[in-house]
Each structure stands twice: as C-alpha cells, then as structure tokens.
Amino acid sequence: MTGELGQLALCLALALAVVQSAAGLLGLRSQPMARVAAGAATGGFTFVVLAFGALVYGFVSSDFSIVDVADNSHTLKPLLYKITGVWGNHEGSMLLWVLVLSIYSAAIALFQRGGERLSTAALGVQGLLAVAFLLFILLTSNPFLRVDPMPFEGAGLNPLLQDPGLAFHPPTLYTGYVGLSATFAYAAAALITGDVDRAWARASRPFVLIAWIALTLGIAGGSWWAYYDLGWGGFWFWDPVENASLMPWLVATALLHSALATERTGAFRTWTLLLSIMAFSLSLIGTFLVRSGVIVSVHAFASDPERGVFILLILSAAILGALALFAWRAPKLESGASFAPASRETALLINNILLVTALAVVFIGTIYPILLAAFGVRLSVGGPYFDTFFGPLFVAMMIVLPFGPRLAWRMGDLKTAARQLLPALVAAIVAALIVLFAISPRTLLGAGIFAVAAWVIGASVVDAVLRMHARTLGVAAMAAIMAHAGLGITLMGIAGTTLWRAESLQVLAPGETMSIGGYSLRFEGVRTLFGPNYRAEHADLDVLSHARLIGHLAPERRMYPVEGQETVQTAIRSTGFEDLYVALGDDRGQGRWTIRAYVNPLAPFIWFGAAVMALGGAAALAARLRARFWSQSPSPAMERA
Amino acid sequence: MNAKKRRRLYFALALLVAGAGGAGLVVYALQDNVLYFYSPSDIARKHIRPGVAFRVGGLVEKHSVQHEQGAAIGFVITDGASRIPVHYQGVLPALFREGQGVVAVGSLDDRGTFEASEILAKHDERYMPPDVVAALKRSGRWKEGQ
Questions:
Q1: Whether residues A85 and A192 fall in one domain
Q2: Domain check: are A260 and A346 in the same one?
C-alpha cells in the first residue's frame, strides 16, 4: 500500500511542479499567480516528503515486494543502514535529490527573498527543474516498482556504504549540489525580470552560503571516508567522482566572493550571473558523471544508458537554456561599478580568475578521458597532472588572499595593507625556517608551503586584532577570518601528510614486531569475529613507543556474504598532530599476514581545517539571518565586512 | 576606433593569447600524465619502452600467483591470447583471486616483467572492470565457457 501511496504522491508532486513553473514564469505580473506558484511549491514539497517517507517505510519494514528495497536491503542489516540504504541506490538517491530541490523551493516560497517578483520567477525556474527530475524518476528510475512474486530476502547494500560516516555523505553533498539550483534559479529570475541589482545578489547569497557549507562538509567527509575506509592511507585520489564534487565547490567559492562585490558595490554583475549558472551546471554535470555510469565507481549505481541519456538531456536543456537567456539579456545590463587597481574588488577578481582557472584544469583532466573513450582510446589522467597545475594555482591564490580583507572597497591603500600584514610575513618566514631546520627530511617545497599557510593564518590573526581595535569585528568579519584560516590549516595538513609520510609494509607472524616513524607495532595475531551481517578477520596489534605500551590497534577485513564483498577497516591512532594508520593486508599462511602501516603527520589538520572553513560559512550565514530577522537594514559591522 | 574600444580590443586579445597559451600548456601536461590502458595482447604487439607507466588489465591466470620474499608477489595477467608476468610489492585488494579480473598500474622493466605500483580489483563479485571486459572481448574470450 505504501508503495502505491508514494507513487501517487510523486505524481501529484509532478502536477504541482507543472503548476509552479507555469504560474511562476507566466504570471510574473500578477499577484494571484505569484501566490499560486508559492502554494504549488509548498504543496509539492509536502508530496515529495510523503513519497520519501513511503520509501523510507518500505526500507525499514523490509517490504521486498518493492524492487528497489529487494535489490538494496536485507532483513539482517542494522536499522541505521536500512534507513541510509534509501539513498544508497540510484532510485532512492534521485528521490533524495528531488526532496532537497523541493525543500529549497519551499524555502524560496516561504521567505520570498528579493521581493515577490524575483522570487516568483525563481520559483518558476525551480518548478521546471522539479518537472524534469520528477519525470526522470517516474519514467526511468521509479523507486516504487513492485515485483511479483515477492523475494523472500533482499540482496543487501554495498558494504562500502555500510558505514556511519558515509551514511550522511550523500544528503550533505546533495544539500550542496541542489542548493546551487536556488542560486541558479535566482540568476535566471534576475535575467528574466531584468532586476539584476544588489537586492538580487543579497537574495541569493544565503543559498550560495548553504550550498558552499554543505559542499565543503560533503567533500571533506568523502575524503575522510576514502582515508579510513579504502586502506590506502591517502585522502584524495583525483578520482573523477571526487572531481565532480570539487568542481561545483570551486565555482561556488568564486561565486561567494564575486557576489560579495556585487552586493556591496554592484561590481561584477554579469560575472556573478554567469558564475551562478556555471555552479549549478557543474552540479548537473557532476550528477551526470556520477549517476550515468560513465564513470565506474562505488557511486555509479546506474548502468542503464537510457538514464544517462535522460540526465544528459536535462543537463543540456538547463545549461543551454540558461546560457541563451544570459547571452540574450546580459548585454543589456549596464556595466558594473568601477574600482581602482588597488581595491577589494581587484583582490576578489584575482581570486576569481585563479579559482576558475583551477576549475578549468580539473574539468579538462576529468572530461578528457571520457571524451577519448568515445573514440575507443582508453586512458586515465594521473594525479601528477592535477598536482602540477592545481597546486601552484591554489598557492598563488593564497599568496594574494591576505590582501583582500585589508583593502577597502572601490579604492584601497596597498602600502598600508602591506604594512599591516608585516606580522603575517614574519610568521611565514619563521614557519619556513622551522620547517627547513627542525624537520627532516628537509624540503624546500615543504618550507614554501608552510610559509604560505602561516602567511594566510597569520593574516587572519592580524585581521582579527586590527578589527578588534577598530571595533568592527562583527560576525560577518569573523566568518571570513575563520574560512581563510581554515584553508591555511587544511593546506598544512595536506603538505604534512604528502611530504613527510612514513610507510611500511611487512609480513608478520604472531609475536613479531615492525617499526614505523618512532612507533613499534607488535602483531598478536588474527581472530575471526562475526558481526550482524559480516564475518571479520580481526587483527590485534600493540602500539609501543620507546618500549612502552601506549595503545592497541585492531584493523579488520570484513566479508559480507549476502553481497559477496569484502571491505577493509583500518585502525587509526591519532594524536591530533599525527595519525598512526594500520590496515590489515592478506593472509600469507601459518598465521602470517601482511600489515600496512603509515604515519601521516598533520593528517587531522586536513579535516579540522575544512570544519573551520565550514564554520566560517555558518558564521556568514548567521550574520545574514540575523540581519534579516532582527533588523531591516544590515548592521554596520556587516556593511564593513 | 576610440581609446576605450582599443583598450577593450587589447584586453580581449591578451585574454585570448593567455587562454590559448594556458590551454596549450595543459594539453602538453596531459600528454605526459595520461595512463594508457593496454591488454596483454596490446603489449605483445606494441613495443612499449621500459619505464613508461601504463595500466594493464585482464584475468589473473590460474595457478600463477607466487608469494615471494617479504610482501612481494608475482602473478600473470592474461587475456587468453597473450600473457604478461607481473611483480608487485604491496597489499592486494580484497577480492584479488586467481581467475578473476584485475587492473595493474605500473611499467615494464628491462626483462619484460610488469612492475606494478598499484593493483586494482573489483570490490564486488559481480563487477568486472570495463577495460578488462573490452580487452577480453577483443581477444574473443569474453563469457567463454559460461
């Protein structure tokens, strides 16, 4: 019964999405139509929630008469993974996609940011997207299809996805991906209505912020999962799927900065519009790459070409439509406000150029093998390509970064800014010297990268102190300070793990010891344990430092008989400054096993920095919401930020 | 042409030159950093220089896996038509089995052995790497005996 209810709810949501798009786009000048669009958005949201709830119920109650549940769930699965299994498959994840989309539509309808005209047009665009994706679900990926006869037991969920960290990875990333649909809708709305003004930039900003925070957390979470679940000791592999999430993040970061200028002085208006379109376009391209089966990975659920073609059609229609609208309307906009070469705008412009160039590098490296595959040439682009281009671009960006917050809008004073940043320069030099003379092996690259990281973090401190003295340290200013410092922290983590990692691979018999980076690992042997739906080879290792027992690590390899798959469970001992990382290898007979161990210096900084960045984003969002709900005009502190 | 227009033209030209230069550099860098995929038959046919990195895929030949000193391991990848000996020092993926599909990343040494730096196997019993499927199809051994 619930399956049919879910199906019905989806159909009703589709009908309301049609109403929403028609009322939103055709009824721009009429107030009743605006109300119809808003009502359809909230109604559509309700029905999508109902449909999603029906699917969750199907998974939790193990209703194997629903194909999707039978293919992806199992009675023995723990409850948490029954629920998260809802989006651990193609159909359910597309429903989650639409759920997030409808949440954003409801939010636009509810808050009516940027005035009724603009938000109504935005609702129209959102409605079109909802129609496209609901049709996609109903026609090619229906999660409520029934199977007869009903199987006695389900096929289970990919064990790689049976992980608490990964359980919330998809909703987080989707909040980011789809959040960019709201900025896309606002940009299209601004082009349709012609209201490309500061009010528009202000209206779409919270959505950019939410999407950016979610993407930051989603990417960091995914990389953390790759770190501890794949057993390779790495955190980023330049895998096409990772790139698919990184590309929207790069554009969203650029957009976050250019929209700031648009909102403040009206500069970069057309550019901000274009970035808004690009950001969501890359989300769609990411969805296509990940979901169509073009790329083979744990994320690629669907290998049905029909679905790939359908997503490709939606993608082309959305991107080409928006770009056509942009090409038609943008030239009619008056050119933006002017600014001096030494100004906040120039700093933001450099930031944007570098970010978009970095995007181009990642885009080319990701698309190139896919394009060539169409001509029968099979190749993959290696990590060194991305490292050689992406690395220097990001470092260049971080060298320029500290000047931005210290320069005034329209016309700044470069000399004063440089003088103010002197302490940060000292910090950079000290950091470089420490790396050169106190840490082995000695590396010039490491010294350079740590200098840049210290430069950015130092500049954040300088900024905080100066603003505190001038009594302008508001929440919005804190946001930028935190986000920038977080970036510096993450850079330290990346450099630390890649430059000074120690690695050791040994075959050990019980009682034998291996040493790595100041630790000794004593192998106690492997036992077989049984989990709820898996069998584990469980290794016990004692960790010794200077002949003193300091801890215990227990890496595992798990076999999931239902799914016929094996996973690696690494064991990590973190001091906050370095990780001792152990993975269990293969059985070499007579109780001997291969053990792979790493010491990853500063690895925790990677995710700590990302969390600080996201917190910065949250502070910016808080400043916005406070300004909206507590006073009609932005606070003075916010104006200066 | 007034001064403003001329300035814009120069700006556009500079942008174009910078863009073209950048694109050229990127494509150049790509050439050095792509990993081609070859089947054992491809390797037998093309003369790949030792030290050039590439990926090779096929099936792990039955009874070919040999544990060597320490964590080193030797085995043979075959596509049914040709075979290539592989040497690897490291942890094998969970579902590495004789007779199953595998992709190795590395390069040939002077004696024609493939020195692997990374071994990728499927993480799912039903899944076969698509490159391996294509290689097996080309050598006519896909789904043979099934």
A1: no
A2: yes
Do the domain assignments include residue A209? yes
Say how far apart CA A520 and CA A542 lie, in whole Å: 8
**Is B37 in contact with A568 (Cβ distance < 8 A)?**
no
**Inter-residue contact A92 to A68 (CB < 8 Å):** yes
Residue A578 located in a structural domain: yes
pLDDT tens digits along A336-366: 778 888 888 889 999 999 999 999 999 988 8
Whether residue B15 lies within 8 A of chain A, CB to CB, comes out as: no
Asked if the structure places residue A493 within a domain, the reply is: no
Peptide bond into A441 cis (omega under 30): yes
Same domain for A243 and A334: yes
Q: Considering the entire predicted model, what is its pTM?
A: 0.89
- Asked if B96 is an interface residue toward chain A (Cβ–Cβ < 8 A), one would say yes
In chain A, which residues have their Cβ closer than 8 Å to the Cβ of B35? Answer: 379-382
Q: How many CB atoms lie within 10 A of CB A222?
A: 24
Contacts of B103 in chain A (CB under 8 A): none
Contact B124 A384 (CB under 8 A): no
For residue B90, which residues of chain A lie inside 8 Å, CB to CB?
Answer: 505, 596
Tell me, yes or no, whether A433 lies in a domain: no
- The helix, strand and coil proportions of chain B, stated in percent and rounded to the nearest 5, come to 30, 30, 40
CB contact under 8 Å between A378 and B94, yes or no, is no
Instruction: Locate the domains of chain B by residue range.
Output: 1-34, 37-138
Check: CB of residue A541 under 8 Å from CB of residue A554: yes
Q: In this complex, do A382 and B53 lie within 8 Å of one another by their Cβ atoms?
A: yes
Total tally of structural domains belonging to chain A: 3
Whether residues A95 and A210 fall in one domain: no
- pLDDT tens-digit profile of B85-111? 999 987 777 667 788 788 888 999 988
Residue B112 contacts A, CB cutoff 8 Å: no
Nearest CA of chain B to the CA of A563: how many Å? 8
Q: Does A17 touch chain B (CB under 8 A)?
A: no
Q: Is A567 on the interface with B (CB under 8 A)?
A: yes
Q: Shortest CA distance to A185 belongs to which of A98, A272, A270, A280?
A: A280
Give the fold, CATH level 3, of B37-138: OB fold (Dihydrolipoamide Acetyltransferase, E2P) (2.40.50)
Domain's final residue, options A405, A434, A466: A405
Nearest residue to A322 via CA among A353, A286, A276, A367: A276
Q: CB contact, 8 Å: A380 with chain B? A: yes
Confidence of residue A634 (pLDDT cuts 50, 70, 90): very low
Distance CA A603, CA A580 (A): 10
- A563 to chain B, any CB pair closer than 8 A? The answer is yes
Q: Average pLDDT for residues A533-552, to the nearest whole number? A: 92
Q: Residues A287, A331: one domain? A: yes
Whether A245 and A309 share a structural domain:
yes
Give the list of residues 6+ apart from residue B120 with CB closer than 8 angstroms, or none: B93, B102, B103, B104, B105, B129
Note whether A506 and A556 are same-domain residues: yes
- Range in A157-166, A207-216, A581-590 with the lowest mean pLDDT: A157-166
Could you tell me the residue range of the domain that residue A365 belongs to?
172-405
Q: Report the C-alpha gap between A459 and A441 in whole angstroms.
A: 28
Whether residues A261 and A388 share a domain: the answer is yes
